Amino acid sequence: MAPYAGLLGSVISAGVFCMKRRMLRTFSIELQGDRLEIRGPLSEEKQALIDKWIEAHSVETDEGEEGS
């Protein structure tokens, strides 16, 4: 797992938690022009898309740091 994958997962989990508590209706995060937006209840399909988005933004470079 890339160095910041856990951090991205934590940020997204916090947004999903707020949605479940009805503190938010929509949660979005954008990195490098790629936007992830979550609306409504979390389904298995949405979780798979979230995991794919995190993986895409957690690629390690040769130096062992997150890619840009």
Sequence-ordered SSE layout with sheet pairings:
Elements: H1 5-20, E1 26-31, E2 34-39, H2 44-56
Antiparallel strand pairs: 1-2
Strand order of the largest sheet: 1-2
Domain module tally? 1
Report the portion of residues in β strands. Answer: 15-25%
Could you describe the largest sheet, including whether it forms a barrel? 2 strands, antiparallel
Shape: globular
Strand segment tally: 2
Cα(first) to Cα(last) distance is: 16 Å
Radius of gyration: 13 Å
Flag low-confidence runs.
64-68
Number of H/I helices? 2
Instruction: Specify the helix fraction band.
Output: 40-55%
Mean pLDDT: 79
Find the structural class using helix and strand composition.
alpha+beta
The helix-strand sequence is: HEEH
Written account of the structure:
This protein is α+β, with helices and mostly antiparallel strands and 68 residues long. The chain has one domain. The chain is built from two helices and two strands; from the N terminus they run H-E-E-H. It has a two-stranded antiparallel ribbon with strand order 1-2. Strand 1 and strand 2 form a beta hairpin. It is globular, with a radius of gyration of 13 Å. The C terminus is likely disordered.
